[in-house]
Design brief:
alpha/beta, Beta-Lactamase, Rossmann fold, five-stranded antiparallel beta sheet
Length: 622
């Protein structure tokens, strides 16, 4: 229901657009315009209202009255307060009174109850109408429903709150970076991550002040490449906090557009400190397990050899005396002797009688590792150092730290590896392949060889300075033919050992078999004797051990045959690795992106092996 207003009131409602007292045609036209304007106000979809200069609301149009479902008398004056949400009344009334007192426009929001009983959000605007003296004589107001906007804003606030909480819980901050202006926009979590106050204006220069000095060059290069090329960002670095603590951060970002001659990146910065420390701990345990696993495998391998140095011959007594004298020192020992004479047993005896007995004894057969991999085995490598290096790996020097490293077949080392080994012996520090960090090591070296190193030096195959470094305390392991008095003891010991393993009871050895053992030259030495007895025990069906003469005649040929097979296998493996590197580098050998760098060996060495193995580089070039 619309309550009719007086002519004077309608004039004020219309903003005094018409002048009372006009006559003639002007009066008719004014009346018609008045009626049209009144009709427009009443039918307008906007919710309009007016008030007196003192704030008393005296008029609400048809739209307002229909919305609240009330008469003009029920809402005029200050009755409209009854339709405002209780939580909004105090604030809205205070704002309206302040507006009336100041005469300034009002812009405010509140919830208004509709005829259906539901509250909806409205935006209210009121402006003053003044007389010639500037006194407010009327207030004109309009209200617009903003329910959908408020819902959208609330949804956005919830979404932002959830995002902020998710970033806080996951320690993941987000940012926007304009490369042209270096302008940065950070989420709250990035402020927390860098430990800057939320009022601080973020900038690239400010962020870089927190970066660890050792990581700054890498980050500067990465940022430079991103700014010039638009490539995605993916980088790890450390932050140094004001209290000196370290945080590990992983940043990823990609461009979402170009602005003012630059790129606009959107990305995340993730605090990975906890996971990095956990990974380092896992890696430490993994390295230790790897070290123990290798040592365990070597112990198993060693179980096929003599557990004890058995014998009482003069030649063996000299060796045992030398072991006793050198074991308590830190001197480097070079053990020479033919293959199978028990050089590793001597090395283990030295280690067990030294102050390092409770520390690792790590062995490496230099002849069993391809030349291209020997440096990695000795010194370790970083992830990505060469093709196939999918993880960081400790070398034998690190595994043996605090203990003893036994380098068997030292005479088989290539020249470049000899140089690296000499440097370790001099400096007592190593560098992993593909890494720049210097790692100190405390390792005692015991080397062994069946080659005549002085002859190798004359032929230019072994470095003289390395020989002098290794040959501090030489021990010569005598061949079995020079200690034949020990053969009966050795045979008895070995029969007992292998018979127990096979579950047999062998009490005797045939006389012609023992005589044959003592007259045979044993080119394979103790290892050959061990193999012959193990075979005889397996085939023995009585309590007396005997052998066939043909077993000893074929011994030398068989050893040569096994060596040829081993060499062929190693060559095949080395060829595969070199060809894989050449394929990845498209036939290129030299340079930072060449095959030599990927394999971690000098270019000249790789060229030599390519030539030696008959590999054609041309077929790898695209």
């Amino acid at each position: 229901m619309i309550v009719e207003s007086s002519a004077d009131h309608r004039t004020l409602v219309l903003g005094q657009f018409m002048t009372e007292g006009a006559n003639g045609n002007g009066s008719v036209l004014a009346s018609q315009a008045h009626e049209q304007l009144q009709r427009l106000i009443e039918t307008c979809p906007a919710l309009l209202h007016t008030g007196r200069g003192d704030g008393w609301l005296d008029y609400f149009n048809r739209g307002w009255l229909a919305y609240v479902g009330a008469t003009l008398e029920e809402v005029c004056g200050w009755n409209w307060i009854n339709y405002i949400h209780p939580d909004d009344v105090d604030g809205f009334v205070r704002a309206w009174k302040d507006t009336v007192a100041s005469g300034q426009p009002l812009v405010a929001e509140s919830r208004v109850r509709g005829a259906d009983g539901h509250y909806r959000w409205f935006l209210h605007r009121k402006v003053a109408v003044r007389d010639e003296q500037g006194i407010v004589i009327k207030w004109l107001g309009a209200s617009v429903e903003i329910e959908e906007r408020k819902r959208a804003e609330e949804a956005l606030r919830r979404s932002e709150h959830y995002l902020t909480e998710a970033q806080r819980l996951s320690k993941t901050g987000s940012f926007v970076w304009n490369t042209a202006t270096n302008e940065l926009t950070w989420s709250e979590e990035l402020f927390r991550l860098h430990e800057f106050d939320l009022t601080t204006k973020p900038s690239l220069e400010l962020a870089l002040t927190r970066v660890h000095p050792d990581d700054r060059p890498l980050l500067d290069r990465t940022i430079g490449v991103a700014a010039s090329s638009g490539q995605p960002l993916d980088v790890d670095f450390r932050l140094v906090m004001p209290n000196g603590s370290i945080k590990h951060v992983h940043v990823v970002a990609c461009i979402v557009g170009q602005k003012s001659g630059g790129f606009e990146y959107v990305g995340t910065g993730i605090d990975v400190t906890a996971s990095r420390l956990a990974f380092q701990e896992i890696q430490k345990v993994k390295d230790q397990l790897h070290k123990e696993n290798i040592a365990f495998r070597e112990e198993i391998d060693a179980s096929s050899m003599l557990e004890e140095i058995v014998g009482s011959s003069e030649a063996l007594r000299r060796v045992i005396s030398q072991v006793a004298k050198v074991a308590g020192t830190e001197s480097t020992v070079l053990i020479t002797g033919e293959t199978g004479t028990g050089k590793e047993l001597i090395a283990r005896a030295i280690h067990k009688r030294s102050a390092r007995a409770n520390r690792p004894f790590i062995r490496l057969n230099c002849a069993a590792i391809p030349p291209s991999l020997i440096a990695s085995e000795l010194f370790g490598h970083e992830k990505g150092a060469f093709t196939g290096a999918t993880n960081r790996r400790q070398g034998r020097f690190e595994m043996a730290n605090g203990g003893t490293l036994f380098l068997d077949e030292i005479g088989e080392l290539r020249a470049e590896t000899q140089i690296a080994l000499l440097r370790v012996l001099q400096e007592r520090e190593i560098e992993r392949i593909g890494g720049g960090a210097v790692i100190p090591v405390d390792v005692r070296i015991i080397a062994a060889t069946n080659r005549e190193l002085p002859s190798a030096i004359e032929e230019g195959k072994f470095r003289q300075d390395l020989y002098y470094r290794l040959n501090v305390f030489p021990i010569h392991a005598p061949p079995l033919r020079h200690r034949k008095d020990d053969i009966p003891l050795l045979v008895t010991y070995l029969i007992k050992r292998f018979a127990a393993r096979a579950g047999k009871n062998i009490l005797h050895i045939a006389k012609h078999t023992l005589d044959r053992f003592q007259t045979y030259e044993w080119p394979g030495n103790i290892r050959e004797l061990q193999n012959v007895i193990e075979r005889a025990v397996i085939l023995c069906d009585s309590d007396t051990l005997q052998i066939e003469d043909s077993w000893l005649q074929a011994g030398k040929c068989q050893a040569v045959e096994e060596r040829v097979t081993l060499d062929s296998s190693l060559d095949h493996r080395e060829r595969e690795m070199i060809e894989a590197a050449l394929t990845a580098c498209k036939g290129r050998v030299a340079g930072a992106s060449g095959a030599a760098a990927k394999l971690g060996i000098p270019r000249t060495t790789l060229e030599s092996r390519i030539k030696s193995l008959g590999i054609s580089k041309q077929r790898f070039k695209s």
